[in-house]
Design goal:
single chain, 280 residues, alpha/beta, Rossmann fold, Pantoate--beta-alanine Ligase, Chain: A,domain 2, 2 domains, three-stranded antiparallel beta sheet, 11 helices
Amino acid sequence: MQQIKEARRLRALLKAQSGAGKSIGFVPTMGNLHEGHLSLVRRARALTDFVVVSIFVNPLQFDRQDDLDAYPRTLEADARLLERAGVGLLYAPDPDDFYPDEADRLTRIDVPVVTERLEGAARPGHFSGVATVVARLFNLVQPDIAVFGEKDYQQLRMIEKMVVDLGMPVTIMSEPTVREADGLAMSSRNSRLSEAEREKAPRLYEVLKKVAEVVRLGGRDFRKIESKGAELLRSGGFRVDYLEICRATDLQPATGRDTELIVLAAVWLGNTRLIDNLRV
């Protein structure tokens, strides 16, 4: 596995791979890798000839400086995992070199509709930061296929829409959420949980399953179901940002006529924010 941080070298290496007739798979990450990330790598390896992984803690998508500062950075350990996983190239640029201008002067990308609620409302500017970094990475890597996890479901839908709207020549693939044995969705933020918080954390997935089961059994008063689910979370020790039942296609509030649904939640345990979702 080659590891580089310069965009010029990245383009030259990938041009050689494409010129040899190899298809390029891409998995963008912020590092601190776990089994969820590796599942994306395995999917990319199965679908393409040469896999690129990026590790870049993107400052544009953080709405709080303390959250950016606290994000775990484990590049050496991540590189070892990726090499064992068969990745061909790790692109890990320096933050000061990645963007060509100051943050407040950069061209930004905004994706409407799917970003305006839920995480978009809770974290102003977050999705613009994600869309901007992913678009820049797509331009640098020029992958045939890029793989994203379904845990960040709203992000996935946003990237799918951005690719279609801007005519980007990349196919977006998704992989199901990877969970711990007790149901907690794997996340780099889980390492911030105290021992007591980690014991409580699986309750989030348990509540999502209860809400989904009520809907599967015919419950259609979605606002009432959401309210009861949020109360279950609060009684379990969580602070609730949101718990909503939405249309899976555009993440608008579900109505009784909708059939393809998803339950999404964002909660706090202490100083750690967790998100999860479950398709219905």
